[in-house]
């Protein structure tokens, strides 16, 4: 059997990421569909049932011939699904555009990162220049986070607008080759376009909680009492579906995407500097103190960092590996060392 190359590893992770990203709209649609069906089944009201069918036929009039008393509830739920999920996806799309436009600034603001000029630290600036040239990528903007811990992240819409943020600790405590390994890991995220995905995840997932809260505040704005009760129940189930998606399914998909991206960035970073052991050595030091205190209030930022920057309680350490956005550092080090 032929050996798996770094390029194979990167390609496999990109395929996994694409498939996982497709799960977001699929899972959301399924959950909202179940919510609509539950409402139709529980509301014993003919007008409410017919209203859902009417909504469906206004989109797909050809379906009228297939509707029977036995499947009327299903088609009614499908009508309510269309009129629920389409606005949700439209609002989400606008939110995504805003996230792409301002997400990098938000992430740098979360970390309280400040621009680093060449005159401030020529060695770090030169290290980023060298790695960018080796990666065949434009020189990113460089930022410094005033924290003695060891961590770093990259952000931006594309390689041309990318930024790399390094903590004060990672700059001062790593050897030059180790620091290049960290920079190469972040440049790998830039080159693999992970920065765009991370930016959407970090700044974009909140839209579903926002929509759920908006629906909650407006669920009493109907006129007729019977209609009010029926539609309140429908909205209530949709709100439940959105919260389940936002706080259960989205984090699970998010976690799976982030884990595959970290392995790919490690492999690509090792390829860029031709020295996987340097990055492995850097990760050994990073795992001793990766916490960035200012990011304790921004747990979603963990996905962008080279290691989880948030505080982990020792009593739940065993569970943290299962719920973490990053694969275990020991496993990452093992894979890097195996690359030789």
Describe the fold and architecture.
It is built from 12 helices and 4 strands. With 340 residues, it is mainly alpha-helical. A 4-stranded mixed sheet has the order 1-2-4-3, sandwiched between helices. A hairpin with a 7-residue loop joins strand 3 (152-155) and strand 4. The longest helix is centred in the C-terminal third of the chain and has 49 residues, at 225-273. Mean pLDDT is 84; it is low at 313-320.
Protein traits:
340 residues; mainly alpha; four-stranded mixed β-sheet; 12 helices; 4 strands; 67% helix
The total strand number stands at: 4
* C-alpha Rg (nearest Å): 24 Å
Largest sheet: 4 strands, mixed
Structural class: mainly alpha
Strand content: under 5%
Rounded mean pLDDT is 84
| Poorly predicted regions | 313-320
Please bin the fraction of helical residues: 55-70%
Series of H and E elements = HHHEHEEEHHHHHHHH
Shape: elongated
Between the first and last Cα atoms, what is the distance in angstroms?
Answer: 19 Å
The number of helical segments is: 12
Strand order within the widest beta sheet = 1-2-4-3
Quick take:
67% of the residues lie in helices and 5% in strands. It has 12 helices and 4 strands.
Write the layout of secondary structure elements.
Blueprint: H1 6-42, H2 46-59, H3 72-110, E1 114-115, H4 122-135, E2 141-145, E3 152-155, E4 163-167, H5 168-173, H6 176-191, H7 194-204, H8 206-218, H9 225-273, H10 276-286, H11 317-323, H12 329-338
Parallel strand pairs: 2-4
Antiparallel strand pairs: 1-2, 3-4
């Amino acid at each position: 059997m032929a050996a798996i190359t770094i390029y194979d590893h990167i390609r496999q992770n990109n395929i996994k990421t694409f498939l996982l990203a497709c799960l977001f709209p699929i899972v959301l649609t399924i959950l909202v569909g179940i919510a609509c069906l539950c409402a139709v089944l529980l509301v014993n009201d003919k007008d409410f049932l017919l209203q859902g069918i009417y909504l469906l036929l206004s989109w797909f009039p050809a379906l009228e011939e297939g509707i029977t008393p036995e499947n009327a509830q299903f088609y009614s739920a499908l009508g309510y699904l269309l009129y629920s999920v389409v606005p949700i996806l439209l609002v989400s799309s606008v939110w995504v555009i805003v996230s792409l436009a301002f997400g990098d600034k938000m992430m740098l603001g979360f970390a309280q990162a400040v621009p680093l000029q060449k005159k401030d630290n020529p060695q770090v600036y030169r290290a980023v220049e060298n790695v960018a040239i080796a990666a065949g990528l434009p020189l990113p903007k460089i930022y410094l986070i005033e924290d003695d811990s060891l961590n770093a992240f990259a952000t931006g819409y594309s390689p041309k607008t990318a930024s790399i943020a390094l903590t004060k600790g990672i700059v001062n405590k790593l050897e030059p080759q180790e620091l290049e390994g960290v920079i190469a890991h972040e440049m790998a995220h830039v080159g693999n376009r992970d920065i765009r995905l991370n930016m959407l995840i970090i700044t974009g997932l909140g839209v579903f909680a926002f929509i759920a809260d908006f629906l909650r505040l407006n669920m009493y704005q109907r006129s007729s009492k019977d209609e009010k009760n029926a539609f309140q129940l429908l909205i209530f189930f949709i709100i439940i579906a959105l919260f389940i998606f936002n706080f259960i399914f989205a984090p699970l998909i998010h976690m799976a995407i982030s884990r595959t991206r970290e392995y790919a960035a490690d492999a690509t970073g090792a390829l860029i500097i031709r020295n996987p052991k340097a990055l492995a050595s850097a990760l050994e030091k990073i795992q001793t103190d990766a916490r960035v205190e200012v990011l304790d209030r921004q747990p979603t930022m963990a996905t962008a960092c080279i290691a989880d920057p948030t505080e982990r309680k020792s009593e739940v350490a065993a569970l943290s590996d299962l719920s973490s956005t990053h694969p275990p550092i020991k496993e990452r080090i093992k894979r890097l060392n195996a690359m030789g």
